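Work Package 4 report. The design task specified in the project plan requires that, given a folded chain encoded as structure tokens, an amino acid be chosen for each position. We show below one input record used in the internal validation round.
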């Protein structure tokens, strides 16, 4: 197999991507904002779904590969590298290739393509069938291209020179070619937009005014599949059979509706996952097993809400399922077919991502409340868990406070949970200021959704922190619905927002009753859905005395200022259109109509350049009403802030904001 190498940086690690040596034993110190910004990370942001596992296991189970990134706020860039780590050795990983640029994720919504979210686009990594080559995507010039490298860092080569990003790929059997997917139609769509420019663009559903004055390509843009041959780099459209390697549904023998299927032996025996209700918007999967033409019975409690399935041998399967309050727990199950029901090997509150089965271990990416992302191995016989790779050994010398898991039921009967982190030196019976961070509390307690409100940093400076996991959507309590019926059921009478508010009030009041939270010093933070929760809470309670948001805020003007596609989408979700006279509606969820009845609350907004206009009506209203209000705008940022210098500034200013209002003798103003 002929490979044309490009200049490899395997021998020249970028920046200080890897620790130089094991950290010396020393007394633990307090965490800093810089520690969080400089944290080494891999995979997607938080727990969104991306193609491929965050850490790819080689076919023989002896190596894992991942794209590591580390922010450097002084230069406002990222250090990146493709790493290969031996799973059975304590030897440090090897950087085998440059990891490329860190670019921003975009998605389709409101009827158009390319809405920039801001989270990093992770590399997709997949080993060749024989394990002698690693294929991966990395960004060059803002486009994800396909590369190859050997596990020792030699013979790195760029396979594709595409005009659009490679979204996903798979090796074809035999390892001589790769099938990959991209949305090549974006090029033609952008050209059509360019051709309209001389005569002016008609203002229509393609516009997202927050991000600028150019229309976006309408969605959906279909994905296409191509095959590239390694020997001569020939690219050709994928055949129907080759497409099935990327999207196996439709393969002969594939069970109807299955999202994953495994053959058990050489016959028709199968294990597969399929939605319990294909018509439901949210589709928890049920495990099915068919042996000798008969489906084996499996208790619903054991075989529902399954998120991963692996075959140990033809009569032993392993699977991972969600369970517990708000699906907050994972259970690893083993089923020896023909020997009774599945049995649980272990359970955990920690999220596991991208698990793959090796010869003896299930290898997963994991996080814990005080453990940043790392790679673990789970012995499938003994259920013992070990760490294969920890990118952040320095965190062993940082004092991290272990959370207390709280579980309760709100006034609507819906359960949820939160994690309470107490400050250093906390003395029972001596209330302290409390900060609520939203709206998902899973894995490493870093900064809440979008990672802007540093939980451990707040606690290190004397704040109790409640990492609040919003309750499941209200409409999930009823029958399965399509998207807009689901959104309408949530929006009717603001039922979902009232459910969240009920959960929030109950837990905060319990912390006041326990003598933990000082009722005069309770703050709330929020991004996206969390910002809506915070605004609603200010209107419908008097619990919160200071607020910090990264996006803001719902009001009638958004139905016109955010574009026709946005207005249509929200109108179908149950919101009134811009010209509808519905002051009763907006009085429930918008701050501006309520300012005359509300006490002033200090409000900090730190918004991206592409979203700050969303906040302008609310900012002007609260500023003119005499609320202590500040807004900061970060260049080149969207819904999620990505640039390391910006992330450091956001962390530090959020801390200083709550110090100013709750601990004025200890903190400086932002």
């Amino acid at each position: 197999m002929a490979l044309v190498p490009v200049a490899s940086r395997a021998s020249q690690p970028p920046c200080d991507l890897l620790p130089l040596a094991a950290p010396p034993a020393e007394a633990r110190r307090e965490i800093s904002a810089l520690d969080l910004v400089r944290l080494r990370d891999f995979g997607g942001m938080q727990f969104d779904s991306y193609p491929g596992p965050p850490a790819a296991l080689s076919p023989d189970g002896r190596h894992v590969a991942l794209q590591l990134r580390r922010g450097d706020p002084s230069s406002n860039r990222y250090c990146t590298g493709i790493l290969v780590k031996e799973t059975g050795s304590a030897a440090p990983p090897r950087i085998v290739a440059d990891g490329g640029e860190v670019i921003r994720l975009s998605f389709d919504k409101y009827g158009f393509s390319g809405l920039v979210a801001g989270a990093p686009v992770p590399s997709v990594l997949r080993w060749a069938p024989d394990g002698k080559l690693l294929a991966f995507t990395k960004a060059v010039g803002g486009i994800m291209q396909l590369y190859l490298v050997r596990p020792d860092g030699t013979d790195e080569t760029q396979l594709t020179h595409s005009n659009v990003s490679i979204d996903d790929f798979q090796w074809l059997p035999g390892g001589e070619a790769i099938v990959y997917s991209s949305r090549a139609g974006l090029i033609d769509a952008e050209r059509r937009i360019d051709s309209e420019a001389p005569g002016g663009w008609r203002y229509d559903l393609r516009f997202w005014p927050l991000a600028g004055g150019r229309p976006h390509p309408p969605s959906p843009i279909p994905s296409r599949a191509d095959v590239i041959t390694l020997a001569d780099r020939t690219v050709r459209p994928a055949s129907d059979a080759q497409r099935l390697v990327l999207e196996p549904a439709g393969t002969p023998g594939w069970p109807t509706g299955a999202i994953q299927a495994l053959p058990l032996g050489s016959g028709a025996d199968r294990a597969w996952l399929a939605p319990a209700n294909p018509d439901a918007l949210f589709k928890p999967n049920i495990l099915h097993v068919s042996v000798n033409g008969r489906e084996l019975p499996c208790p619903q409690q054991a075989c529902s809400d399954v998120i991963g399935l692996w075959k140990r041998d033809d009569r032993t399967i392993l699977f991972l399922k969600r369970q517990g309050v708000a699906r907050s727990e994972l259970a690893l199950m083993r089923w020896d077919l023909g020997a009774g029901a599945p049995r649980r090997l272990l359970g955990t509150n920690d999220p596991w991502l991208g698990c793959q089965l090796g010869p003896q271990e299930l290898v997963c990416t994991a996080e814990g409340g005080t453990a940043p992302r790392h790679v673990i191995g789970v012995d499938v016989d003994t259920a013992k868990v070990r760490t294969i790779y920890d990118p952040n050994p320095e965190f062993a010398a940082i004092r991290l406070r272990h959370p207390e898991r709280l579980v309760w039921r709100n006034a609507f009967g819906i359960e949820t949970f939160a994690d309470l982190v107490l400050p250093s030196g906390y003395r029972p019976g001596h209330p302290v200021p409390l900060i609520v961070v939203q709206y998902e509390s899973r894995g490493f307690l870093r900064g809440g959704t979008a990672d802007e409100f540093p939980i451990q940093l707040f606690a290190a400076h004397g704040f109790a922190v409640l990492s609040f996991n919003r309750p499941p959507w209200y409409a999930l309590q009823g029958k399965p619905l399509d998207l807009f019926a689901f959104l309408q059921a949530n929006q009717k009478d603001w039922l979902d927002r009232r459910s969240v508010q009920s959960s929030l009030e109950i837990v905060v009041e319990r912390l006041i009753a326990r003598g933990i939270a000082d009722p005069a010093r309770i703050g709330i933070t929020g991004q996206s859905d969390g910002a809506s929760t915070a605004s609603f809470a200010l209107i419908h309670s008097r619990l919160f005395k200071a607020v910090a948001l990264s996006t803001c805020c719902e009001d009638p003007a958004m139905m016109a200022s955010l574009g026709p596609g946005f207005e249509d989408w929200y109108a179908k979700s149950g919101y009134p259109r811009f010209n509808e006279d519905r002051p009763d509606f907006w009085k429930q969820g918008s701050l501006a109509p309520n300012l005359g009845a509300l006490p002033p609350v200090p409000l900090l907004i730190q918004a991206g350049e592409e979203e700050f206009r969303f906040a302008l009506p609310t900012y002007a209203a609260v500023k003119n009403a005499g609320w202590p209000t500040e807004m900061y705008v970060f260049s080149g940022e969207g819904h999620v802030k990505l640039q390391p210098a910006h992330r450091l500034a956001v962390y530090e200013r959020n801390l200083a904001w709550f110090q100013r209002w709750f601990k004025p003798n200890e903190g400086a103003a932002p």
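The radius of gyration is 26 Å. Validation will be extended to a larger panel in the next phase.
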